[in-house]
Amino acid sequence: MELYLNHISKKYKDKTAVDDVTLRLTPGVWGLLGANGAGKTTVMRMIAGIMRPTAGQVEYDGLPITMLKEKYRDRFGYLPQDFGFYPEFTVKDYLYYVAALKGLTKRDAKRKVGELLEQMMLTEVRNKKIIKLSGGMKRRVGIAQALLNEPEVLVLDEPTSGLDPGERVRFRNLLSEFAHDKIVLISTHIVSDVEYIAMQNAIMKDGKIIAEGSTEELTRMVDGKVWNGKIPEKKLLEYEHRLRIVNLRNEEDGRISLRYLADTPQIEGSVPAAPRMEDLYLWLFPQEKNGGIS
């Protein structure tokens, strides 16, 4: 099983959104990371067949998805950033409606809807209108609809937006189990969603893939550039202007512990720290002060 992005590009009149992206996806969880406007959503829409590349093609098991048509869509699951639904739909009715669109038999639809209502912890709200649900619950409904046809290729754009930390952990565990023999591609602004479960990550910048590899391989890019140091509280503003700070913590002795990025130590007594994906992201995208990926 293989999904191959074969030199795909997407150009508009005055902008290149995706520029000659090549990526070979095999079973497992993949993370797609990058700042706003990097081109991630455009890539996902081309994988979904919603948008055609200006150049190149998306291939599944050696054949263009434009040739496979329904055979590909039957094996595909997609959660866009904003999924649509009719305001009058209840959770259960919506899932049965999507199941019918995906061609599930009544028996399979009943089984799968029941399973997903339980897995996504939606059983108690199954008869409630989606429009009245919280943002996190709406997201869970969106995830459920993407999983209805047990897809071989699952593409999720910001899947955990609105989920609380406990829900994110449960979702990550579900995905890890699901991706045993399936291809899962996640675009997220929450680094922890992919840091521990992604087999491989691809990082996009200005429409291009600038790095690809496992979390361990990618974080080596910032080996020797991540530091822990302590400063007096009164000097925090000064150091905030000077340093690329990842996070900080108040200490009992009145000082502040800083985790920061630099080629060489900038605070006396600093010690090197083991790099994480958040460090790498802030090194590559220094304008993203909160470490978010979108």
Could you explain how this protein is built, in words?
The structure is a single chain. The protein has 294 residues and is an alpha/beta fold. The chain has two domains: 3-219, Rossmann fold, CATH 3.40.50; 224-274. It is 31% helix and 28% strand. It is built from eleven helices and 14 strands. The protein has helices at residues 40-47, 65-68, 70-73, 91-101, 106-119, 135-147, 165-178, 192-195, 215-219, 236-242, 277-284; strands at residues 3-11, 16-25, 28-33, 55-60, 63-64, 76-79, 153-157, 183-187, 200-205, 208-213, 226-232, 244-250, 255-261, 271-272. The strands form three sheets. A six-stranded mixed sheet has the order 6-7-8-3-9-10, sandwiched between helices. A hairpin with a 4-residue loop joins strand 12 and strand 13. Helix 4 (91-101) packs across helix 5. The longest helix has 14 residues, at 106-119.
